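User: Can you recover a sequence for this backbone? Please restate the input before giving your answer.

Assistant: Of course. Working from this structure:
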């Protein structure tokens, strides 16, 4: 049995550093590429979609067998999503 004295701590530290830095570097690259696609090539990458709960929607849900009692307070409330 060799024990902890045989562990190459510098190699283990480099592996741990790679696990931490890889997602951070990937996020920066994605942000930069998204900026380039959106601003340099004038491509729309975010389309906001607006939703609103109405009484007719709740009626349709109720016809489908959904309990709409908790949703009644949301009538008229606007919601945003994106495509």
């Amino acid at each position: 049995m060799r024990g902890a004295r045989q562990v190459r701590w510098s190699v283990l530290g480099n592996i741990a550093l790679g696990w931490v830095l890889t997602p951070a570097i990937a996020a920066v690259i994605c942000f930069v590429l998204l900026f380039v696609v959106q601003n340099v090539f004038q491509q729309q990458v975010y389309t906001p979609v607006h939703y609103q709960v109405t009484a007719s929607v709740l009626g349709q849900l109720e016809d489908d067998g959904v309990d709409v009692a908790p949703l009644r307070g949301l009538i008229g409330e606007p919601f945003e999503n994106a495509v």
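That completes the design. Helices lie at 9-40, 55-63.
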